[in-house]
Amino acid sequence: MKKMVSWRRAFKAALVLLAFSILWGIIGGIIIFAGTLVGTTGILLTALSDPTNIGAYLGSMAVTIIICVIGGLISFLGTWASAFRIATNLAIEEMKKTMSVATTPPVATQAVGTSPTCPTCGTPLTYVQQYQRWYCPTCREYR
């Protein structure tokens, strides 16, 4: 039976994602605010110096829109990147927890008299003194 991520760990990951989302929102908001400030300043300076220069108005508006789009993209992509990173780390941690610990038989083994056989595969078991347990080299499990 495969184990799933516990609710506690899932909610912890969700809270971390929420914190990163807020952080990316603040960073994007600062960029959007700066873009709006630059654009508004450009429009006001144009209105004061040459109110008939429509090109300067359009240029200021274009700069404002571009900077605001960049700020929004940073918020959006930063949140998604954080979600992928958190989910990947959580999956890797869970895989490490559920993977078999012993992939090769232990080195420090000794045979004890007549060794019992594995109830699963029938292979003779090896006694591991270090762990004081029987080990099946075929199943790669302690019995």
Description:
The protein is mainly alpha-helical and 143 residues long. It has helices spanning 7-49, 54-98; strands at 126-128, 133-136, 141-142. The chain has a three-stranded antiparallel sheet with strand order 1-2-3, with no helix packed on it. The model has no long low-confidence stretch (mean pLDDT 87). It has two domains: 7-98; 102-143, no CATH class. The protein has two helices and three strands; from the N terminus they run H-H-E-E-E.
SSE topology sketch:
Layout: H1 7-49, H2 54-98, E1 126-128, E2 133-136, E3 141-142
Q: What does the largest sheet look like? A: 3 strands, antiparallel
Number of strands: 3
Weakly predicted, low-confidence segments: none
The N- to C-terminal Cα distance equals: 19 Å
Output the structural class: mainly alpha
The global form is: rod-shaped
Number of structural domains:
2
Number of helices: 2
Estimate the mean pLDDT confidence.
87
Helix content: 55-70%
Our estimate of the beta-strand percent is 5-15%
Strand order of the largest sheet: 1-2-3
- Alpha-carbon Rg, integer: 31 Å
> How are helices and strands ordered from N to C?
HHEEE
